[in-house]
Amino acid sequence: MLKPGTSIDPVEKVRAAWGGDAPEEVVALAEACRELGTQTKAARKLGYSNTVVSQVLGQKYEGSYPEVYARVRASFMREAVTCPALGPITGAECATNQRVIDPLTVQQVRVYRACREGCPHSSLAPYPHVKRRMGAQNREKADAE
């Protein structure tokens, strides 16, 4: 249900730009734009600008696609994930937990740390010491061989 005056259907834009190789997140974003009526409404729900959404749909985005995909899954695909700190949660809850800057409760601290210590669902960079530990483990394996 597109807003009157909208010239290009987002799903058609994705087909033209991506062909048959469009990731499911991009297709879900295009369908969300169509359902909400405008790219701007979908962009607001994701926390991005209309320009970013347009560039992702047109395969011209120069930023981090995985980060955009994570937000699309959380907002529009409602993917369930297993949080190392909380167990099964929705993708929207996961995205919200990642945005916590100043944890106040014990549970928030656990989530804060899990998001930054290599959780596969996190779009945040891990702590620097996590990389060192992983590197040390790989060196030990290499030494053993």
Features:
single chain, 145 residues, mainly alpha, two-stranded antiparallel sheet, 2 strands, 6% strand
Kindly describe this structure.
- This protein has 145 residues and is mainly α.
- The chain has two domains: 1-77, no CATH class; 79-145, no CATH class.
- Helix content is 60%, strand content 6%.
- It is built from eight helices and two strands, in the order H-H-H-H-H-E-E-H-H-H.
- The chain has helices at residues 10-18, 24-36, 39-46, 50-57, 65-77, 91-98, 106-116, 128-144, and strands at residues 80-83, 87-90.
- Strands 1-2 form a two-stranded antiparallel ribbon.
- Helix 2 (24-36) crosses helix 5.
- The longest helix has 17 residues, at 128-144.
- The radius of gyration is 19 Å and the shape is elongated.
- It starts with 9 loop residues before the first helix and ends with a helix.
- The model is unreliable at 131-139 (pLDDT under 50).
Summary?
The protein has 2 domains: 77 residues, no CATH class; 67 residues, no CATH class. Helix content is 60%, strand content 6%.
- Beginning-to-end CA distance, first to last residue: 60 Å
How many individual domains? Answer: 2
Q: Mind telling me the C-alpha Rg?
A: 19 Å
Low-confidence stretches: 131-139
- Chain-averaged pLDDT: 81
Number of strands: 2
Which percent band covers the strand fraction?
A: 5-15%
Order of helices and strands: HHHHHEEHHH
User: How many H/I helices?
Assistant: 8
Q: What structural class results from the helix and strand content?
A: mainly alpha
Major sheet size, sense and barrel closure: 2 strands, antiparallel
User: What is the oligomer described by this structure?
Assistant: single chain
